[in-house]
Amino acid sequence: MKKHAITLTVNGEERDLIVPSNRTLLDALRDDLGYTDTKYGCGTGECGACTVLVDGKTSINGCLTLAATMDGKSITTAAGLARDGNLHPVQQAFIDNDAIQCGFCTPGMVLKAVSILDENPNPTEEEIRHGLEGSICRCTGYTKIVDAVQDASNRLSGVGE
Amino acid sequence: MGELKVVGKKVERVDVRSKVTGGALYAADVQLAGMLYGKIVRCYDHAHARVTSLDLSEAVKCKGVIKVLGPKDVTQKEYNASVLDMMVSADMRGVLGDIDDQSIFTDHVKHYGDAIAAVIATSEEAAERAAEKIKATYEELPVYLTADDAKQPDALQFRPEKPGNLAFQLPEMAFPNNAYAWGEVDDSFAEADIIVEDSFYVSKQKQCQMEPGSYIALYDDQKRLNCWTSTQMPKLVQKKLANLYELPMTRVKIHTTVIGGGFGARLGMVLEPETCALAMAVPGRPVKLLSPREEDWLTSPSRHPGKYWMKMGFKKDGTPVACDAKFENYKGAYYVDASGTAFTTGAWLGGMYKFDSLRYRGESYYTNQSICGAFRGYGNPQTNFVMEQMVDRGCAQLGADPIEWRKKWHKTIGDDGWCIGVPYNSCALDECLDRAAEAISWTEKRVKYKNQTGVKRRGIGVAVMNHTSGAMPMLLEHTVCDVLLHQDATATINLACSDMGQGSHTTLRQVAAETLDFPYDDIHIATGDTDAAGFDIGAHASRTLYVGGGAVKQACEDVRRQLFDRAALELEEDASNLYMEDKIIHVKGASNKSISVQTIADQGVNNFMNPETGELIGQPGQIQGYASFFPPHNAPPFGATIAEVEVDTETGEVKVIELVNAHDVGRAIHPGVVEGQLDGGAQQGLGMALTEETYFDEKGICLNNSFTDYKMFGPSDMPKMTNILVENPDPTGPFGAKGVGEAGIVPPVGATANAIFNAIGVQILEAPITPEKILKALEEKNNA
Amino acid sequence: MTSRVMRDFDLLLPESVAQAITLLATHKDKAAVLAGGTDLLVALKFDYDIDNVVSLALVPGLDVLEFDSERGLAIGAKVTIADLLKSSDVKEYYPALWQSAKVFATPQLRNTATVIGNILRASPAGDCSLAIYALGGILTLENATGRREVDLDDFWISYGVTARKDDELTISLQVPAPATGQKSAFRRMTRVTEDLSKLNAAVCLQMDGDECTGARVAMGCVGPTLIRLPKVENMLAGSVVTPELLQEISDTVASEINPIDDIRSSAEYRLKVAGVLVKRVIKLALNEGNDQ
Question: Per the structure, how many domains does chain C have?
């Protein structure tokens, strides 16, 4: 099997690695680079636990992306959202709204929320729910996650400050 | 009880920072030096077959393969993955009828995905490639998917000890006539003016916890068997593994990792026996076993599906005179929890209404489906689907309002709870019903939705439930807790209770802080290490806060008592004349006489001495609190859900508009945690009612063991949610708390079914209530 | 049964269309083309086995999404479903396509999955494919000997099988420009919001005032491929769409479809409800509503 030398910028840090053709971005992040915050939940692009952001905004499933096709790309995982020791407003909103239970979906879910708000800083509840499709949570019934995204939207746009 | 400082507050949960940044380590995230990877080879050709040949030779030759294991290469002991037998008295073990009928690898495949061999290799990929080279041939056997199939006289017997493939029925020795019963049911029906009766099907719902099964095992240099697992019950799994591998408990250690959801799927053992078998084959090397989602689906237990018949009789004035019921569940390939659910399904039925007489029979039949076990509610969602539809049918015939009828006839304080002879000691169900009804404008909507004729029709329905906090007296409830007071006057609470995401480590820390009267930040909950933690029966049966919290409270009271005793000596006062404020112990009425907790703790640890006199300063000895806690009761949670739905009569599609969940929670130690349990429970309850079922073809091949094919309610499907927390402190719960881990899933099941009944005037007897079934029922109604 | 690890293959990363075509000419049926990969990579975790995967990741010029009032909409091989949703032209001129894109799979998959990939998958349940089928489309395929065009009407042969030859690269899709009075809509039924369709329908109606002068009506999940409903199309053509006509259409649909039982629904249900869905999608098109 062919191997490919690639460079990924993960959470702002440039990483060189050699991956076989069939290595998914998910496995490269987890097993080759140690970003275990990106989770395997189903391997078939249904659950969104492996969600990462490309160029800081576009959400994709790491389990359905070949690492070797991502050469030169910039990837953000949940571990890369905090700045200078401060949580990203979306992360803080997840904590403040009790939107986290078992936490297995949480890294993918917060990244998803970041991408939703990047595309639409002031989404309606319906738009938030539509945007959260593809990220399965079995603990919260989504109620508090939706609240958290709404709250994060307000924080990011300065409402209520 | 004075004003509460920590209990009742939405403090920051202990685990959320690590979870939101991705730092939390789940079992799959743990990496050990020299890790090997296991792959279990499973039979995906048949659901019932004998292995006639197994050729491992090609696999052995594959690159990276360390070892290939067939059935004879691992322990020959049979086991039962369930731990029920470890939670009951010796007498009760006979009642359970548990048998050891599972083996690590089998030559008699009993369900799609049964394990036949395994590979250990240097990488996951090498293990996968080698596993593909293992060739098995099979002799096909007849497939039994339902109780009726398995009962046939000529059916192949799964186990000689269980004739007729009847794995379990309520045994005569504890349940005369094999029934959980009171009164004379047959006589009572003679008094009934209205009798309703029907046969239902309840579905094989799957927990779908987000973390698929992930394990590491290592048989280490000290000949200790280590297992990293996201188990809900570390201490019982430790003992089970010790039994299976014939090791003393000192040589088995469970490292509980962060748990990515449980809901029952991590109750007892799951793939711990297999992972340990691999590790025992390569001493000194850790072996990691990661299930693909599809494998996790088939190897962890599901809810018990089955046929559920029920008959109810009422007098004209509404008096419920008799209830007769029988649940025949499709147990699956192995015994596991065959006894538990078969009993509790009836217990929840018995605990709900004041029938003059009641009879429930529960039977578990072996089938060639994947195994069933614990799933949030443990029989209660099944009963809710059936019982609550039957009650509403009765109410319709009686002309009674379903809420008024329930308020009049539900069991309450003083009535027998789910266990006959153990009366309820608290109940706020009336308040739940009243507040829910008001929140959703029940009365107005029941009138408004009568006689609709449009394509889309609204309906509103109610359901109630009783549950339990821990399972006293069926289970021997017990949790041990140690509290270590550090010299800086902070405290570490050591116990085995797992937090599977429900927030129990947060609420236990709140209980500790409140009891010690320490700030929340001065407490740490230490768990996850079976070497360190005392006994506990695990996170299940809505018990962690009630029993674990009781243990924490008692152990912290022990610390507080020791602190006050020492302060009394130092201050030369009677302990009863002291009080604590901001971690300083004062003498009542003498503000200048005080000593800080920090001073006491520090003196206890450091054993200071006056160098001139040689006298000790303070009382020596580090303070530790201890509790071996047996709860006095089971603090019953009650709850009501009202659901509003809209049914499209042309397509049968159901849109859930709103759910109001009103629950008697005793006390909400952390309101956000409680709401989260109700929200998440509702998502699963709606799924049970409307979409979730595991399908098999006629050969027993599972058709939807994946998120692609098995559908749960997603963010856009969830309705408007209103949670009402009714706080009516239970006399036995820590700060009055009841367990709410399971309550949330239960009444949305019946309420949704009843809302559909209200909208279209027909009841759907098979869960899940799909558009296909609704349309068919509507056609039959129109043709009738 | 699935594996956590994909099967072995060589990933080939051509840097031009010409290079890609040369690779396909070399490997023929031993190569699969990877654009978005949301179907291919799942298949590679199950039983699908292929020696070579030719990725279009580095191939320039395939991400064109261009609307022209004469020629219509050009969609390159790498255009994703999410790209469609960002296009105001798609929303304005091709409501059926926009509506199908909006509900297509999940945000992550929409960001990756390509429109042409959905067509090449030849699934009888494809949502975007169905909308395009109703709107009409011409595919451009290229191999070492040159380019050819294939009408979508002739493209799907059976379940998972298309008219594309192993050595051909699908370059682009052209959807005709809408004439004045063209109205279209897409609607689907699923078990929960995020799911593969259990029944889907799309229509493209040419309206002249109240009269429908021509119609393309397509359905999915009712046969081995997406299908058109010629009887329904004939009933619409030259008619004023009245409630009575809609009811007649609704009653006719069942005679044009051949659904099966599967995990998502039953043949019986599909036969009963398909007519309702077609009726509703026609109404949606005429109301020019975007709501689902």
Answer: 3
